[in-house]
Amino acid sequence: MLQLNDLVKLTKKRKRVGRGGHRGGTSGRGHKGQKARTSGTVPARFEGGQMPISRRLPKRGFTNYLFKKEYEIVNLEQLQNMFEEGQVITKELLLQSGCVKKGNLVKILGAGSLQKKLTLEVDACSKSAKEVIERLGGVIKLV
Question: Which residues contact 24 (CB under 8 A, 6 or more apart)?
Fold first, then answer.
């Protein structure tokens, strides 16, 4: 018969280290020092109060991370499949059609083939894509 005093616990009791007991005086914490203490946790980058290496080394160079322009890429093959002859293609239309995911800058690249006359209003265009579009009688307006 099931009794309250015979129940098996579902969780294991946590081992409390550093309180004396069967592990000896140090209880597996070594001898003295900051890490032997109860609240002796220190971050991995801590150097014991010495000036950290990240502050000792000089800060040099330049990063363009904050000012980098990221373009959404659209190939000529996508324009061929998605749009009709003579259509005016803007960034908003590309966003609605699913060619680009975000409302970022849009760049047209020359991968694939194009047989339609299109008018494009985008942020950037490669030389090869521009040649193909203008050869077919299309127009590229850089916004």
Answer: none
Contact status, residue 72 vs residue 104, Cβ threshold 8 Å: yes
CA distance 89 to 118: 7
On whether residue 28 sits in a domain, the answer given is no
Q: How far apart are CA 26 and CA 42, in angstroms?
A: 19
107-135 tens-digit pLDDT? 999 999 999 999 999 999 999 999 999 99
* Number of structural domains the chain divides into: 1
- Residues ≥6 apart with Cβ < 8 Å to 61: none
Please check whether residue 114 is in contact with residue 79, taking contact to mean a CB–CB distance below 8 angstroms.
yes
CATH number, domain with residue 137: 3.100.10.10
Within a domain: residue 119?
yes
20 occurs within a structural domain:
no
For residue range 88-110, list pLDDT tens digits in order: 999 999 999 988 988 789 999 99
Domain that holds residue 121: 68-142
